[in-house]
């Protein structure tokens, strides 16, 4: 129905389950003006990170269809609606970089190609150096012009005649989530769009070297591979120390011994002319994306701390430790209680034994001449009168007991009652 308004394009066949996204569809199409050429049409829903306004998004997509650079795959046609985007780009029969690594056909389904590849193999050192440098040049071109990517992996790199081009550069502004978002969301130092691209580059470089992506990140023990010169670059991106201290820049990676000596066919400086108004909108969108990522990382960090604390608190070792502490505290309390009881008894017995008995002494001459002591003054304050005892206090108690014993239900009078519990209608 969409192509009724643009009859230049014609759908040849659907490419079912070609990608890993559930809500992204692929079709093989042709241009009626160039019937021998084949193109790839993709239809994708807009993602949660779509922060550009509709007007700015249209301007950005128009920009992506206008420029032509050697390391970015050209976008031939784009149309963005309120909820989705339709994109057309050239279809490459040789496939993407992951197809070259796994040695599979590009038209097969994603699971069939990459779930358990039987002939997967890493690239040669010269290919790693050349492809890595070209990918870095494409990232540098985007970063220098204020654009963000965030979706680099070997399936988004097209290889044709030893030239790598970045695919689906528009994914960043369309707001769709990255394939590696679940991984770098747990690493708080990867909190900018540039550091995300560098981290994704390290992930792709690992796959180019060993023929498969890393099982988990950070990676502290790299497998013994044929290219030891690549390991130093991988350690600067994927090791625990790198993930804690931060990612190197794209320019710093280009200056490493692995890539600095690579000669590129395109010698002149690459540029993309981005309008100043659109550049400001992209900068604001970039800040919003980074802020959302940092908030998500804080929540994940707090959740991990809480989970570790709960796991430690419920572990068997911690339970045993708490039991031992409770026993020690109980014993200490009992000892202190016994000491408190024994101290007053010892004080009383000691004071009685130490006081000698008083015995009358014979009067001395000085005591006979001394006047006798004055008698004590009697206390003349009136004493409170004692309350009078009630008459027959003892007899009243015995009478009450005898009346209780002589109680009989038969002596009670019958009472007439009226049942009013039923509702009144």
Brief rundown of the structure:
The chain is 43% helix and 11% strand. It has 425 residues and is an alpha+beta fold.
Main sheet, how many strands, which sense, barrel? Answer: 5 strands, antiparallel
- Average pLDDT number: 82
Question: Which geometry do the CA atoms define?
Answer: elongated
Unreliable sequence segments: 349-371, 377-383, 386-393
Radius of gyration: 45 Å
Kindly state the number of beta strands: 7
N-to-C terminal Cα separation, in Å? 69 Å
Strand content: 5-15%
What is the succession of H and E elements? EEEHEEHHHEEHHHHHHHHHH
| Side-by-side strand order of the widest sheet | 1-2-3-5-4
What's the number of helices? 14
Helix content: 40-55%
How does the helix and strand content classify structurally?
alpha+beta
Kindly describe this structure.
By secondary structure, the chain is of the alpha+beta class. The chain is 43% helix and 11% strand. The chain contains 14 helices and seven strands. The chain has helices at residues 54-64, 97-102, 110-114, 125-144, 171-174, 181-184, 193-210, 231-238, 240-245, 250-254, 276-313, 316-354, 365-369, 393-405; strands at 9-15, 24-31, 34-45, 77-80, 84-90, 157-160, 163-166. Strands 1-2-3-5-4 form a five-stranded antiparallel beta sheet, with helices on one face. A two-stranded antiparallel ribbon has the order 6-7.
How is this fold's topology laid out?
Blueprint: E1 9-15, E2 24-31, E3 34-45, H1 54-64, E4 77-80, E5 84-90, H2 97-102, H3 110-114, H4 125-144, E6 157-160, E7 163-166, H5 171-174, H6 181-184, H7 193-210, H8 231-238, H9 240-245, H10 250-254, H11 276-313, H12 316-354, H13 365-369, H14 393-405
Antiparallel strand pairs: 1-2, 2-3, 3-5, 4-5, 6-7
Helix pairs in contact: 4-7, 7-8
